[in-house]
UniProtKB/TrEMBL annotation:
It holds the Pfam family TMP-TENI. Gene3D superfamilies: Aldolase class I (3.20.20.70). Pathway: Cofactor biosynthesis; thiamine diphosphate biosynthesis. Residues 10-190 form the Thiamine phosphate synthase/TenI domain. InterPro entries: Aldolase_TIM, ThiamineP_synth_sf, ThiamineP_synth_TenI. GO terms for molecular function: thiamine-phosphate diphosphorylase activity. This is Thiamine phosphate synthase.
Amino acid sequence: MKYIEKLHYITHDIPHLSHVQQVLLACEAGAKWIQYRCLSKNDEALLKDIKAIAEICDDWGTTLIVTDHVHLNGKADIQGFHIEDMDADFIALRKLVGHDITLGGSANTVENLIRLARDGADYVGYGPFADTETKPNNYAHLGIEGYQHVVSALKAQAISIPLLAVGGIKTYDVEALMQTGIYGIAISGALNFAGDFIEAYQDFYNLVKEGAVN
């Protein structure tokens, strides 16, 4: 099983910080897992960003995951991809990128999560936990009970996969979330719009580390 960090930071298109600036701040705060999420640029602009971010991540020993854009595999120092399409064919994707590349996926139902686990995903981002402006959608909020349910469902079927909560998570949610037995969490807006980005990251990191039960 590949190593998966328990706290994932996801970049986004925001007016006051470029993706590169976001990654610099996250790495300075101690981040070891960056998910570059940019769906607004062409391939040339994406690669310019990714190559700059890859250099930063290399300097800090941080894993770089790219949201979607699997066609860019091999064109920059990318360690993995996170696929947001919940209907994506992970068996075909694995054949495409090979076994050394990390493949994560998004899910919002137990059935989809189980399919991803069985089809070769290395981890799953499961949500949304609560309301989020970062990635608006119409899916029902899972809340704490939603994660309790999915953890129980995975155990009942003897399925083991790193499961990360995502979507509108605040620091005061982390303790109860980690106690459900999930593997970790993914955050974005809670840092990007924090008064002190670095302090906020470190608060999340400490809470996740203290709350981990697996």
